[in-house]
């Protein structure tokens, strides 16, 4: 009998080792499934949170734009009943820069155009009629403000920029029938004016071209 036990011991030991190896493999598989599930849940949670953040940010942006369009621009001046006749002569405008009135038959290109020299006002008024915002400045404006405003114009179709040395303030923004003096390129009214008046409700001819006109 003792001899039989000795013969069976190696087989029993092998079975025990095999069972232990299988137990460890099952344990590893369980841990792997738990880790995979946990990681998947974390990824899904991150995606949901990220999606929620993006939706919230988009909603905040939309609400800010609605607020900008519906709120009056502080310090803005408004002119009503502006004539829209095409003339091929100099026009004596009652405001400087002009925000409307009779103007040249050809518009100034206003497809994000930054002009470094003075432009014909009669052509620029035609651009305003098409829904453009016109940024003007004098030599008293800070170079940093001129640069930053130029970058905004270069990124905005239906806008243009040029110097107007004899205007009353260093920085002015104009649209058809609308004008405001701003203190700097970071003045909150700059963004509001662009949001509200680039192809805004004041535009007499919305959608009209801002290319194919006069270029400096």
What does this structure look like?
The structure is a single chain. This protein has two domains: 1-70; 77-197, Glutaredoxin (3-Layer(aba) Sandwich). It is built from four helices and six strands; from the N terminus they run αββαβαβββα. The chain has helices at residues 2-70, 121-129, 143-154, 188-197, and strands at residues 77-78, 111-114, 133-137, 159-163, 171-175, 178-181. The protein has a six-stranded mixed β-sheet with strand order 1-6-5-3-4-2. Helix 1 packs across helix 4 (188-197). The longest helix has 69 residues, at 2-70. The protein is rod-shaped and about 115 Å long. The termini are far apart. Mean pLDDT is 88; it is low at 1-6.
How many E strands? 6
Largest sheet: 6 strands, mixed
Spans of 5+ residues with little confidence (pLDDT < 50)? 1-6
Rg, please?
A: 35 Å
How are the strands ordered across the major sheet?
Answer: 1-6-5-3-4-2
* Rounded mean pLDDT score: 88
CATH class of the largest domain: Alpha Beta
Give me the strand/helix succession.
Answer: HEEHEHEEEH
What is the total number of structural domains? 2
Q: Structural class given helices, strands, pairing?
A: alpha/beta
Question: Please, what is the oligomeric state?
Answer: single chain
Shape summary: rod-shaped
Helix content: 40-55%
Name the beta content range: 5-15%
- How many angstroms does the end-to-end distance come to? 113 Å
Please state the second-level CATH architecture of the largest domain.
Answer: 3-Layer(aba) Sandwich
CATH topology of the largest domain: Glutaredoxin
Number of helices: 4
Protein name: DUF3105 domain-containing protein
Organism: Streptomyces atratus
Biased composition (Polar residues): 1-10
Transmembrane segments: 34-55
């Amino acid at each position: 009998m003792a001899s039989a036990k000795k013969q069976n011991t190696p087989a029993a030991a092998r079975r025990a080792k095999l069972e232990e190896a299988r137990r460890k493999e099952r344990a590893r598989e369980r841990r792997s499934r738990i880790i995979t599930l946990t990681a998947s849940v974390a990824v899904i949670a991150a995606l949901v949170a990220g999606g929620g953040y993006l939706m919230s940010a988009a909603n905040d942006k939309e609400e800010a734009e609605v607020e900008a369009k519906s709120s009056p621009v502080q310090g803005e001046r408004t002119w009503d009943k502006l004539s829209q006749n095409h003339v091929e002569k100099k026009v004596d405008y009652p405001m400087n820069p002009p925000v409307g009135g009779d103007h040249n038959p050809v518009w100034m290109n206003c497809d994000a155009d930054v002009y470094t020299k003075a432009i014909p006002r009669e052509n620029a008024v035609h651009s305003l009629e098409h829904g453009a915002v016109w940024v003007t400045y004098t030599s008293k404006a800070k170079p940093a403000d001129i640069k930053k405003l130029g970058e905004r114009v270069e990124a905005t179709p239906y806008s243009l920029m040029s110097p107007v040395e004899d205007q009353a303030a260093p920085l002015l923004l104009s649209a058809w029938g609308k004008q405001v003096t701003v203190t700097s390129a970071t003045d909150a009214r700059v963004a509001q004016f662009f949001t509200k008046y680039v192809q805004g409700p004041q535009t007499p001819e919305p959608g009209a071209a801002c290319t194919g006109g006069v270029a400096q």
